[in-house]
Amino acid sequence: MILLMGIAGSGKGTQGKMLADQHGLHLISMGDVLRMYVTGKQRQRMLAGGLLEDQEIIAIVDKLFESISNGTEILIDGFPRTIAQAEWLLNQAKAGRFKVDLALHLVASRRAVKERLLKRARIDDTEAAIEARFDQYEQSTEPLIDWLSRHNVKVVNIDAEQTVETVNQQLVKALEDYKKA
Ligand code: AMP
């Protein structure tokens, strides 16, 4: 399993699709899954840029993994986003359910990605929701990058402010280097 991480607007969606197509990976986009299923108050919370509860996310991911046959290589965008989610994931890996191979981290500044998000016009791409997602990322997800390294997951940082093609080439290279090693 390969984890794709990065601040909102860093290109996870676009890059995830490209990489999955190029390498025949099973792509899970947590944001897309949640936009499909989540209703009521939780949906409001999501649209305001807040994270959903760890237990709820874990229950959804657990079911998704059950539906994927053993040995399929998964690329997951947007999970884990908190240390609690990562602890669950690594415990599942320890229990032999799958391997967590690599984390690809798309690195971009708030300034650079804000422009992209405001152009995208998704309903949670308002100024306030964008700021909330940036704050969430800094508080909950950024500390995860170090945490994963300390737990023996190889993290590769990629400068996501480059062109789509360059970022894609670097992701492909990171994946191929990892497989060779
Ligand atoms: P994304 O499309 O990745 O930007 O995700 C959109 C929204 O879905 C986020 O702002 C969160 O509200 C929610 N979400 C996605 N992944 C997670 C996760 N792993 N944990 C909690 N909330 C999530």
Give a quick set of tags describing it.
single chain, 181 residues, alpha/beta, Rossmann fold, five-stranded parallel β-sheet, 8 helices, binds adenosine monophosphate
Can you walk through the features of this model?
This protein has a single domain (2-180), classed as Rossmann fold, CATH 3.40.50. 58% of the residues lie in helices and 14% in strands. A 5-stranded parallel sheet has the order 2-3-1-4-5, sandwiched between helices. It is globular. The longest helix has 24 residues, at 127-150. The protein has 8 helices and 5 strands. It has 181 residues and is an alpha/beta fold. The mean pLDDT is 96. The chain has helices at 12-23, 30-37, 40-47, 54-66, 83-94, 110-120, 127-150, 164-180, and strands at 2-6, 26-29, 74-77, 102-107, 154-159. The chain binds adenosine monophosphate. Adenosine monophosphate is lined by residues 8, 30-31, 34, 46, 49-52, 57, 78-79, 81, 85, 133.
CATH topology: Rossmann fold
Strand order in the largest sheet: 2-3-1-4-5
Assign an overall shape: globular
- E-strand count: 5
SSE ordering: EHEHHHEHEHHEH
Q: Using the 3D structure, state the CATH architecture.
A: 3-Layer(aba) Sandwich
Annotated CATH homologous superfamily: P-loop containing nucleotide triphosphate hydrolases
**Quaternary state, please?**
single chain
Number of domains: 1
